[in-house]
Amino acid sequence: MRFRRPHAIVLGGAALLAAAAPLSPLGDLIGIPTTYVTRYEDTLLDVARRYDVGFIAIRAANPGIDPWLPGAGRSIAVPTQFVLPDAPHRGIVINLPELRLYYFPTSGEPLSFPIGIGGEGKETPVGHTVVAFKRVHPTWTPTASEHEEDPDLPAVVQPGPDNPMGDYALYLGWKGYAIHGTNRPYSIGRRDSHGCIRMYPEDIARLFTLVPQGTPVTVVDEPVKAGWQAGELFLEVHWEQADSESLETTGAPRAEIAADADDLVVKVAGAEDKRLDWYAIHLAENQRTGIPVQVTLSRSGD
Known about the structure:
By secondary structure, the protein is an alpha+beta fold. The protein has eight helices and 18 strands. The protein has three domains: 10-83, LysM domain (Membrane-bound Lytic Murein Transglycosylase D, Chain A); 91-220, L,D-transpeptidase catalytic domain-like, CATH 2.40.440; 224-294, no CATH class. The chain has a nine-stranded mixed sheet, covered by helices on one side. Strands 16-17-18 form a three-stranded antiparallel sheet. The protein has a two-stranded antiparallel sheet with strand order 2-5. The chain is globular and about 65 Å long.
């Protein structure tokens, strides 16, 4: 991973912008850690929407907690801090395992938003493309495979509350793929689409105004990320895409196999590799909460 100049970051959701403290401007991390204490009526889905994160992300960050009845007074870890993906910091970068989109404008502060992506057998592709064109109030034309799944679908769905594309769409250079809104906000942070990238209605409305036609789009598959902040190395480990359905339904992955981030951590640590905290590294590899964890030991005397 390349070392980058310090910069300020802003997360995407209006609710989070209103509620969060100022964001850290230092290093390869964006955002700040957040803890939320539940009220009796809260679900994890409610908390995720309030803080502009996805459902699987908040579920993975809180293993063992009932997502529908967490109970009043429960301390919830909200994953609102992220290591930036190891990809060119220009245009749109999408990291599939963390179900998150990053937007790097030509000037000003990057933004970050949760997304929904393609499910098993309908995966969102990895690679490079561009925003080919934009549409307000797009129509939706179901594909042949979607008609096979639901023969009652019409040939075309006009704009409105029944349109699963929502009110805004950024069509990609890959035929049949778009970044768009949704009439099912609870699908954000899940693998529930036929390959398109879904966003909360308020997030796509904001992104749509900022992203010009021709913007580069990079889609990566990075379950493990590492980066520096304020002289310390942080490791962020996610479950693989294949574990998403199991995490959503049971709160546990499909296979209990620890991630292997050792080589990446050593590479990013560079000359600071003697400071690595291997206990913290292996714990992060096993737990895979998706929350950045410091994996360097503080310098003696600090």
